[in-house]
# Entry
Amino acid sequence: MKKIALVLAVLLVFCALVSCNKDVEEPTTTETTQAQPKNVTIHIKKDLVDEVPFLTSISEFEGIKVTSDDTFHILTMSQGTYVTFLKSKAQEVYDMFDEIIAAGSFVEDITYNENFRTIKVIVDREGFDAIGESTQRLQLMTIGAYAMSYQMFLEEGQKTSVIAVYSDTEEEAMLMNLPVEM
# Structure
C-alpha cells in the first residue's frame, strides 16, 4: 500500500504540473474536395513526463503518433482513436478506484461524474478519522491524481473536487479541490 501511495503521490505531482491542450486540426481538402478526417493533437510538457512510465505506454497505443519539440511531447491521433484512447484511460481510473475500495481500508465506495470533475469518496468515519489529517489529504490527493491522469488528455484541462463523505451520516468530512490546493 505504501508503494502504491508513493507512486500515486508522484503521479499527482506530475499531473498537477502537466500543461496540455487538445487541438482539433481543421480538415484539409484535396483538389477533388474530399475531406480528410479530423485529427486530435495533445501537447504535454516534455520536461515533466520524460520520467513517467505511462508516456511510453501511450506511444505504444496503436494509432497514436508521438513526436516532440523542444518543449512538448505531441500526441496526434484520429478522432476515433482519441475516443478509444480516452475509454482506455477511463477504464484504468475505474480499475484503480475498484482496487482502492477492495483494499478494505476506510474507503467504502467512490462515485464520480463525467470526466471525474467531482469525486465523492464514501468513508468509514472511524477509519477515516483515525488516520489523521495529513494521511487523509494524501489519500484524497491520490484519488484525485488518478482522475487527473485521465483529464490531462481533455481540452478542459485538469481540475477535480474530491469530497470525503461519512457513510453513516452523509456529512462532508473533507473537500479537496485539485490542483489548486497543491
Remarks:
- The first strand starts at residue 20 and ends at 24.
